[in-house]
Amino acid sequence: MSLNYDKSKAAYEAANKVIPGGVNSPVRAFRAVGDYPIFIESGQGAHVTDIDGNELIDFICSWGPLIFGHNDPVVQEAVMSAVQKGTTFGMPTEIETLMAEKIVELIPSIEKVRMVSSGTEATMSALRLARGYTGRDKIVKCGGCYHGHADHLLIQAGSGALTFGVPSSPGVPENIAHETLTATYNDIDSFKALFAEYQNEIAAVIIEPIPGNMGLILPEEGFLEALRELTKENGSLLIFDEVISGFRASLGGAQKRFGIMPDLTCLGKIIGGGLPVGAFGGRADIMDHLAPVGDVYQAGTLSGNPLAMKAGYTTLCELQKRNPYADLDARAKRLEEGLAAAADAHGVRATINQVGSLLTVFFTDRPVHTYADAQTSSVDQYRIFFQALLAEGIHLPPSQFECWFISTAHTDADIEKTIQAAEKAFAAVAKA
Ligand code: PMP
């Protein structure tokens, strides 16, 4: 099978004339894997239909929000009913309280929460709050972690920044970059060294408890626990960026899965049920430093938007009801095993990291525990693999340094079809 993508090619040419790079978010341009992206017409379950009429099995799933796949009927119905009442008021609505109550119920460390409209806003606001609360300016992040595109977070950033080789972007003033220190994920000594050098200066450590933006990496035994202790000893806040892992690593996020209580948590993706949402929350004594009770300013015209709240609240209630986590894990494991066997059969060296419904195939012969390990992967092999699967109607993330997202809508048949197609794709990699 080899699918035709002529209309997507033409649509990309048109888009390029009026949109920088033809896209509204860089990784969508598929630059790391090809010449043009696929333009989507619609989505249903685990499948998207593109404008050429091809039906593809989708492992991007909008980069995480769609844990139930595209167009889940219950979420769709909730949004439709909300639309009838109006799309935005800029005034309080009760659904915002229901949403906050649900987040507080489900995420162990959150006592109070504020809604924003993206993950970027969530991390940016959480860091302002951490700085306002501690009276300190410096923050620590890990190389290869991505926390959105705010100035002070585009330092050694993952995701598209890593894919395009601009992990530290022009346009970020030196004096802002200067306040961001970088450490190494899974290397507690790299954090200890920073705390020793910058005593009483570090407001917070922000970290993806399960990094998904240098490809998927898992925390080593004791690493997150040690970081919790270290931040506490030094009077710094620990901020978990659970924009990907929230409601995905478990119903209570990575913090519930690993039993660690951060001071603040950033959320996004799944909590919006497919609409634009972010949130940050945590200890009430810290959150009450936000305006209008406190003096740390943060605001948003569309924050707590009623459509987004309805989609998100419905998604969280449905997750509680359907409890899909064991099932998702089993399906992702089956995919991992099938892919590993297919790679082996063709003598391709690949390391597959998987947790819950997240997975990355790294084209490297070493285990991937760190950013440096991830960077040993062959982006050329990934490109061949990606294109071979696309020709078979399987839509992977268009970069080596991203996660595949598996949804409850991915059936056993979708998984088996993907494994069969991967046989051919690994064969193509082996031949190249
Ligand atoms: N944090 C993490 C861990 C993310 O993966 C992302 C986006 N992929 C963000 C923050 C930024 O979220 P947004 O794109 O909604 O601004």
Automatic annotation (TrEMBL):
<keyword id="KW-0627">Porphyrin biosynthesis</keyword>
<dbReference type="InterPro" id="IPR004639">
    <property type="entry name" value="4pyrrol_synth_GluAld_NH2Trfase"/>
</dbReference>
<feature type="modified residue" description="N6-(pyridoxal phosphate)lysine">
    <location>
        <position position="269"/>
    </location>
</feature>
<dbReference type="Pfam" id="PF00202">
    <property type="entry name" value="Aminotran_3"/>
</dbReference>
<dbReference type="GO" id="GO:0042286">
    <property type="term" value="F:glutamate-1-semialdehyde 2,1-aminomutase activity"/>
</dbReference>
<keyword id="KW-0413">Isomerase</keyword>
<dbReference type="GO" id="GO:0006782">
    <property type="term" value="P:protoporphyrinogen IX biosynthetic process"/>
</dbReference>
<dbReference type="GO" id="GO:0008483">
    <property type="term" value="F:transaminase activity"/>
</dbReference>
<dbReference type="InterPro" id="IPR005814">
    <property type="entry name" value="Aminotrans_3"/>
</dbReference>
<protein>
    <recommendedName>
        <fullName>Glutamate-1-semialdehyde 2,1-aminomutase</fullName>
        <ecNumber>5.4.3.8</ecNumber>
    </recommendedName>
</protein>
<dbReference type="GO" id="GO:0030170">
    <property type="term" value="F:pyridoxal phosphate binding"/>
</dbReference>
<dbReference type="InterPro" id="IPR015422">
    <property type="entry name" value="PyrdxlP-dep_Trfase_small"/>
</dbReference>
<keyword id="KW-0663">Pyridoxal phosphate</keyword>
<dbReference type="InterPro" id="IPR015421">
    <property type="entry name" value="PyrdxlP-dep_Trfase_major"/>
</dbReference>
<keyword id="KW-0963">Cytoplasm</keyword>
<dbReference type="InterPro" id="IPR049704">
    <property type="entry name" value="Aminotrans_3_PPA_site"/>
</dbReference>
<comment type="pathway">
    <text>Porphyrin-containing compound metabolism; protoporphyrin-IX biosynthesis; 5-aminolevulinate from L-glutamyl-tRNA(Glu): step 2/2.</text>
</comment>
<dbReference type="GO" id="GO:0005737">
    <property type="term" value="C:cytoplasm"/>
</dbReference>
<comment type="similarity">
    <text>Belongs to the class-III pyridoxal-phosphate-dependent aminotransferase family. HemL subfamily.</text>
</comment>
<comment type="subunit">
    <text>Homodimer.</text>
</comment>
<dbReference type="InterPro" id="IPR015424">
    <property type="entry name" value="PyrdxlP-dep_Trfase"/>
</dbReference>
